[in-house]
Amino acid sequence: MGAFCFPRAARLLKKGDFARLRQSSRRIGSRYFSAEYRSNEDTVARLGQAVSRRVSKLAVQRNRLKRLVRESFRRQRLQLPGLDILVIPRTAAVSLPGPELLADLELLWSKLPRPQR
Fold first, then answer.
1. Measured CA distances, 18 to 37, 46, 111 (Å)
2. Comparing C-alpha atoms, which of 58, 66, 56, 59 is closest to residue 92?
3. Annotated domain spans of the chain
4. Which of 2, 18, 32, 85 is deepest in the core (most CB within 10 A)?
5. Which helix (DSSP H) or strand (DSSP E) does residue 83 occupy?
6. Is the distance from CB of 45 to CB of 83 less than 8 angstroms?
7. Is the pLDDT of residue 6 over 90?
8. One GO CC annotation, please (predicted)?
9. C-alpha distances in angstroms, 91 versus 14, 50, 57, 69?
10. pTM above 0.85, yes or no
11. Topology of the domain covering 11-110
């Protein structure tokens, strides 16, 4: 596997992982996305997504947002600290072109806390 893959170990998959994240997390936001994060025991970042029907009634639009978030995370994964991150798009994100959303996600990743060395 290449450095820019999205392996199973980099995903939040279990209901308990999401519950722990929602229970004790910090929040950051950008113009079109918000995120909740908390440190995990691993040294790798893990991604979870929550794209509800409130964002868009059309599954095609919700899936497009999820693909864009995954792609952006996949590119930044190795530079991110060991955090569990839940990304939630805002309704305004639906109508925007992909490059603008990717730029906004880059801003979101840059707001995550970096470990002290």
1. 10, 11, 21
2. 56
3. 11-110
4. 85
5. strand 83-89
6. yes
7. no
8. ribonuclease P complex
9. 26, 12, 11, 14
10. yes
11. Ribosomal Protein S5; domain 2 (3.30.230)
